[in-house]
Amino acid sequence: MAALADSRLDMAGGAQPDAAEPGRVVEALELLLGPPSDGDRAAEPGPEPALCPETLRRNAAALEERLARAAGWAALRQLRAAVLSRAPVLAAGVAGAEPGWATACGLLALLLCLKERLAALAASPATPAAPGAPPPPGADTLSVGQERAVRRALRAAVGLGLLPHLPLGLGPEPGLGPPPGTRGPRLFAVVTALVELARLPALGAPLLARHLRLLLSGLCGLGHGPAALCQGVSEAERAQCREALRDILDRVYQPLAVQELLILQGQPKQRSPSAGAALAWLRRLCGHLLSERLLRPGGVQAVVRGVLEGTDGGAGAEAAALDWRKCDAVGKILAACPQQCLSLEDYYRQVCPQILDLLHIQDKVAARQFQRVATTTLLTMAREQPQLAERHLLQPLLAPLRRCSQATELAVEDLTAGAVLVPEAELGSCVEDILKVYVVGNDSSSLLLGSLQSVLGVVFSLYSFAKQNVSYLRSPCQDILLWFLEKAEREQSLAVLEGLARLSSHVPSLHPQCQLRVGSEGGAAVIVGETISDEDEALYQKISLEQCHVESLVELLSHCQKSGLAGDFFIHCLKELTQVVAEDEAAPNPTVEPGGTLLELEQCQARQGRKLLVLQLVAALCEGVSDTVFTDIVQVQEFLAAVLHRACAHPAQGPGAAAEAQTLAMAMGLVAAVLGGAAQLKSSDFVVLKRLVPLLEELSRTYPEPLTQELASDLRIAICTHGACSPGTVGAAADGVLGRKAGMGAQSPAGIPGRAPSPSSPRDGHGSPLAHRDRSKEQSTCREPSASAAPRADSLAPAGLQELLVSAYDPQPPSRAAALRRLASLVTQRDPEALRIQEKLLQVFLENVQHEDAFVYLSAIQGIALLSSEYPERILPVLLAQYECPAQGTEDTMAAVTRMKLGEVLMRVTRALGDMVFQHREPLIRAFLRGARDPDSALRASSLSNLGELCQHLGFQLGSIIQEVTCCVTAIARTDPEAEVRRAAVHVVVVLLRGLSEKVTEVLQNVLRDLYRLLKHVATAERDAATVLHAQLALEELDTAMRRVLFPPQTLEKKIVVLP
């Protein structure tokens, strides 16, 4: 800029240039306007506040004097004369007697001269930059001072020349305008000059940035205003103004153009009636121009930015509400088709892709508002034109998911394996767009729900995939699924859940040949999967995928329990199970009956697969969401009706008789519990429960078990009498379910029970001797060590404890486990009666440890651990004796399993004792060392694992026993034939080295060399990869420890010594 900043010529003399320099033109502008004042810094155009008419005349005279006589101004005088010769109206204005208009014409003439000089300089060849120097500025670049002078001149020219000549309603008040008959020609001359200036970037930027609205007002008035406002302007000149108007609107920043047109369209009506009528044409014109802006490429975003720019949410609820109302208004405007559009189809085709692009705005500040506008527009279009909205909005929005859906006919077979069908970025963007439109928009119209249902299967597959991996798509997919299940009708939601569970085809799932792959950005991509030739591997992947889908569905339903959807779906699955069983029994089995066709065999396999899937789903629902699955009495009644109906249609018989009987006992116990005080029933609730009466009556007549018949009849009586007549069997069954002692009666209502209780509690025998005798028979036929008669409790023990001891030998695992956990709870609470018979409790727990059901023996293990932690001196010797010497008369395999369970008990006791375990160190280590020499390999591995954990709890203070431990471990690691045992032995070494860390050279001083040789031998000669890995880990621990000992870290210390 230095060349232009210092381009002023010496006024006293000097060489005469061939052309006027820009600096000379700027000097003339400053001379015409006079020195700047504080008022010149105002942003709004208008008359110069410091320029009175006399000052304007004096400045104009000084400029004419300078142009006529000063040296170095001849070129500018000639250029100015040439410019005025092309603009006669401006020439007449310069010579006129009106000071304001004369100054405006003089300024415009000088600005046109500056424009010509800058254009000529820009066309000249650029001066090359010196090596290493920055590139020089352009020849047409103005300095800061010159730009300030140009902006001041533009403001004065617009304020003195354009503003007074604008039509009524856009310009000054009536009476302040120009002389009659001159408005049109003067306005055309000023507008033409300003449009010419706007073509040069150096002058057009400040002009359009500050004076665009007034320039548009003049162009609109001349090009499209009524004829009365354009007197003296020819039709060709008006056409020229219309062309200039479109050119200006096309070249400026589109949001700015939209803002200015909106302001012009919303100009307040003036007080005069004629002004109000005059603005009607302007409002129509601005609407037409805004529609043209909208239909341009990128026009939707330009309109939205033009309306919303400068609105960033504000502070406070009022500002936020105003922003949202503005966004909704813009959305509704975009949804309306302009009048000049050829057809509604064309408008949707042009605008809808731009509306979807609004969802992808990266600016975090404006993203919320653009998302609101896009969502409002889409929902409004969906309500007003559902077919067009689905074709141009919803289908492109859901296209990435439909592309990989099973319902879409794709040429996937032609694609090579591993080809990317939906890229990660596209899939993630699609899911986020669905979340913004459907979930955030929250419009549950049938069109939106129907369109979303077509891709829910793919969304669920993506949710299940993201649940197994680390992906940001898990949360949005879950929100989409939960939103649909909440907003849809209950029948539609149940049908969708059935489709997601692969029980029906209501929801298209992911294409069989498509697979999901983890993306590099935390998302997922859809690829074409490879065909698996190995049938076993294909079956394994299919079963794993089904299991994953069931788990994901159960987790999804865990969020729908308050709405009751989880309970309804659980009941639906029970009904489906009943239907599947009925179809399975009615259909012939082609594998058994000869002559079956291949079609019948396939149908049979399909039925079996469906049955297994329903059973898997019911089991997962029982485990995952059964705590609060039922939310009202209606769902409880439907659940009970489903169970009773299955019992009536298929009485307990065959291999699954025990499970069917257990389910029926649970259902009838639940009915008794509801009637016995678990819920506060009203008259309307009894109306619901009366739906069970026909099923209970049929059950009392047809069920083969007499006690069940009796209880069904009593329940029917209690329901029909609204609880007024409740036989004793109902109360006994209710007490068994609610966990009350017999005879306690109904307690305070606790709400509808969510989880069905254990069906065969020790109190569900209805208090009859026959039930106790049947239970004794079942116990006598059980093939387990605890099948002997239940021990008689001490005569001093209360009835409740006696009942728990009896229940600890119940043939039904749930009842037995519940009793064991209750006994363990009494030990934890230090119940005096329970502690008084601790030997008997220990016997009960030890016998139940041998039970084959995991729930039972884990409950027994917990009880023994709690009892041992309370009285270790009494209990630990018994446990160690049982661990070292198994019971006589038992099979070797059963004895080994029992000893491993006792090992788990000992380790739990060790954890519970904490630092107190040190006094029991030697017997525990001796027991585990003996177990490490057992013939059973699993027991040897278990003993070594327990030994390693015990060393950790002891703080590796093994004392003199360390030699025995290391010798045992070394021998086993070298000579044991089983890989898992050698692996456990090396793991003990790893635990020792890792736990001792820097103390390894002190504690293992005598055996460290032997352990090192052992590890090197295992690392080089061992065939088992896992054992080698353990050995390498141990060597790394040893290497780290030795490096710390040999090369201790150097620490710099500063010592301060105080001299005496």
Automatic annotation (TrEMBL):
It holds the Pfam family ARM_TANGO6. Residues 1-21, 126-145, 744-794 are annotated as: Disordered. InterPro entries: 4Fe4S_Fe-S-bd (IPR017896), ARM-like (IPR011989), ARM-type_fold (IPR016024), HEAT_TANGO6 (IPR057407), Rtp1_C1 (IPR019451), Rtp1_C2 (IPR019414), TANGO6/Rtp1 (IPR039600), TANGO6_N (IPR057347). Residues 763-781 have a biased composition (Basic and acidic residues). Belongs to the Tango6 family. It comes from Cyanoderma ruficeps. One of its GO terms (biological process) is protein secretion. SUPFAM superfamilies: ARM repeat (SSF48371). This is Transport and golgi organization 6 homolog. Residues 318-347 form the 4Fe-4S ferredoxin-type domain.
